[in-house]
């Protein structure tokens, strides 16, 4: 596996959680919660720009975006939204690859971990998206180590 920082992105309706890891891909850590721009259609929206800036600053080797599926594996409205966001992000960060990874239960797991740490629902709202992004990224890192290859499905931006 080539060295390089990786970013993890949890796409929500109101916020986007962002996590990053070291160049060796050992440990995912929270970075930021970015306000979501819902009516955006291009790669120039403030949320996508913020993540693209972070990718450039960290010289990211790959960006992992969570793919929210139903427990059955079926895709729904949230999946369509995440795929559209990932496509806009892929255009903004090219040539850095964007890959979608299964994120079933990431927010539930993040909420559970924050509760176990003694945070109330109200106090963890600002960081829940970051915690979910950490879980998404750490899962991708673990998959990379076990498979010896990048995790998830590649998002192919349209040709320019």
TrEMBL record:
Family annotation (SMART domains) = YqgFc
Top EC class, one word: hydrolase
UniProt cross-references to InterPro entries, sorted A to Z: RNaseH-like_sf, YqgF, YqgF/RNaseH-like_dom, YqgF/RNaseH-like_dom_sf
What does the record give as EC number?
3.1.-.-
Q: Does the keyword Nuclease apply?
A: yes
Q: Give the similarity note.
A: Belongs to the YqgF HJR family.
User: What is the purpose of this protein?
Assistant: Could be a nuclease involved in processing of the 5'-end of pre-16S rRNA.
Write down what this protein is called: Putative pre-16S rRNA nuclease
Species this protein is from: Xylanimonas allomyrinae
């Amino acid at each position: 596996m080539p060295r390089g920082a990786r970013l993890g992105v949890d796409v929500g309706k109101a916020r986007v959680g962002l996590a990053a890891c070291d160049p060796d891909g050992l440990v995912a850590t929270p970075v930021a919660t970015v306000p979501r721009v819902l009516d955006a259609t291009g790669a120039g929206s403030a949320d996508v720009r913020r993540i693209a800036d972070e990718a450039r600053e960290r010289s990211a080797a790959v960006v992992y975006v969570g793919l929210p599926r139903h427990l059955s594996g079926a895709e729904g409205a949230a999946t369509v939204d995440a795929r559209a966001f990932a496509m806009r992000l892929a255009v903004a960060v090219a040539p850095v690859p964007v890959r979608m990874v299964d994120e079933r239960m990431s927010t539930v797991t993040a909420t559970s971990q924050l509760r176990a740490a003694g945070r109330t629902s109200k106090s963890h709202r600002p960081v829940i998206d970051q915690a979910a992004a950490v879980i998404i990224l750490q899962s991708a890192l673990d998959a990379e180590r076990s498979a010896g290859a990048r995790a998830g499905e590649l998002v192919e931006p349209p040709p320019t």
